[in-house]
Q: What sequence folds into this?
């Protein structure tokens, strides 16, 4: 019999760790090749880890809610054969050596973390809890430490730096372009809610808790301001109606309005690179690539933002394929962790649900987000050489939220006006 080491696979250049959310197999279960063994979660994406071999699961090395680094062994599968097998070694991207983390995690498993740590709304790994207990750090003290990990998570280095400087000011380590994580207010500070016998209490799922934290953190971080503009998209509606069947026949893809709007946004970002930036403390990071996030609603009501990489380099066909691919995989729960990373600007289509316009919250650490309103037939003044007339036109509102810390009204307004100009100048005779 041979033992195969099932490791946490590499999930993208920007993903260094994942949280175990559910074991689909237990010790002693038979496992087929490519069969899912466990479920994991990164910032926003839930996914499964399949087995690369067929055999019997003989050892589970991490519990539910444990954080695992890329490349770490998470389970042992016994297979038929005479040699020890393992997956190719993957270099972990985390700052702590894999062996060191594994050793510390094992030590953490042997010592039950203080009960008061579990009462926190913040996530702390078993390693961090173990160190905090050994150093006599209270829950309130642990929650006050500024984290430099994913979503503001406190990691080993943050805690050790804090312990080193204990008694003076806590050490704060800033990570460029990392969105601060908001912690919901403690129950003692919350407004009391009256519950009667007919009410139902349902705990938020993991993703909803993450979204809640992101939204509160964004409002607390950025000075939100909005600009609105109405756009005449009659030419776009007529053109799409004319070519959508031929487009689907030739390209095998449905042609929606979204890729047309995304194309215009990408062009405007090239014209106004000041909107394609991020903020890190007192520093502005000018993004080289234009990576457009497209907010998508999931069947369970949650929200996810897959990213179209290098959107300015795509023609309309390429944009349509990218939009459809990400949208379909989002609905099917098939997005990879790297699909939601690296966005530099976000677009959300509130018109899908009939909203005329909205005031979206910025997707940190970006500085702007554009909401596309519903397209409506409205009476409008049409200017002609013979005079002004009233006619029926297809119009929509663009709602631009931007971070007033670094984007003033001139830039924020000019950018959304440029998007509108591109849409209104759409060539009805263009090919696709």
A:
């Amino acid at each position: 019999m041979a033992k195969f080491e099932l490791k946490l696979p590499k999930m993208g250049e920007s993903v260094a760790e994942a949280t175990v959310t559910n074991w689909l197999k237990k010790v002693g279960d038979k496992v087929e090749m490519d069969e899912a063994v466990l479920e994991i979660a990164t910032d926003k994406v839930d996914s499964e880890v399949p087995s690369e071999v067929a055999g019997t699961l003989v050892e589970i090395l991490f519990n539910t809610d444990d954080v695992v680094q890329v490349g770490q062994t998470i389970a042992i599968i016994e297979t038929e054969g005479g040699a020890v097998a393992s997956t190719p070694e993957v270099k972990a991207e985390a700052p702590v050596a894999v062996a060191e983390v594994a050793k510390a995690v094992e030590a953490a498993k042997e010592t039950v973390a203080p009960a008061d740590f579990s009462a926190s709304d913040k996530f702390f790994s078993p390693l961090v809890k173990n160190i905090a207990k050994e150093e006599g750090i209270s829950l309130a003290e642990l929650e006050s430490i500024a984290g430099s990990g994913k979503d503001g998570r406190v990691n080993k280095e943050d805690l050790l730096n804090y312990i080193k400087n204990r008694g003076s000011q806590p050490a704060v380590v800033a990570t460029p372009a990392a969105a601060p994580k908001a912690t919901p207010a403690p129950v003692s500070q919350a407004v009391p809610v009256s519950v009667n016998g007919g009410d139902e209490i349902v705990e938020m799922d993991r993703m909803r808790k993450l979204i809640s934290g992101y939204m509160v953190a964004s409002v607390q971080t950025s000075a939100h301001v909005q600009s609105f503009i109405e756009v005449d998209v009659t030419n776009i509606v007529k053109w799409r109606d004319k070519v959508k069947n031929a487009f689907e026949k030739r390209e095998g893809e449905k042609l929606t309005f979204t890729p047309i709007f995304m194309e215009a946004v990408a062009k405007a970002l090239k014209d106004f690179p000041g909107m394609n930036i991020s903020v890190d403390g007192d520093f502005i990071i000018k993004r080289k690539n234009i990576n457009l996030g497209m907010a998508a609603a999931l069947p369970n009501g949650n929200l996810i933002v897959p990213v179209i990489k290098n959107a300015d380099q795509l023609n309309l066909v390429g944009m349509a394929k990218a939009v459809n691919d990400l949208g379909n995989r989002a609905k099917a729960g098939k997005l990879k962790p790297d699909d939601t990373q690296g966005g530099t600007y976000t677009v959300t289509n509130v018109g899908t649900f009939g909203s005329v316009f909205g005031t979206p919250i910025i997707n940190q650490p970006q500085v702007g987000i554009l909401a596309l309103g519903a397209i409506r037939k409205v009476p409008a003044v049409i200017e002609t050489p013979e005079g002004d007339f009233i006619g029926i036109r297809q119009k929509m509102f663009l709602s631009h939220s931007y971070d007033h810390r670094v984007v003033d009204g001139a830039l924020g307004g000019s950018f959304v006006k440029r998007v509108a100009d591109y849409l209104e100048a759409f060539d009805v005779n263009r090919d696709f």
In short: Residues 234-251 form the longest helix (18 residues). Confidence is low (pLDDT under 50) at residues 87-98, 108-115, 168-188. The longest strand covers residues 387-403. DSSP finds nine helices and 20 strands in the chain.
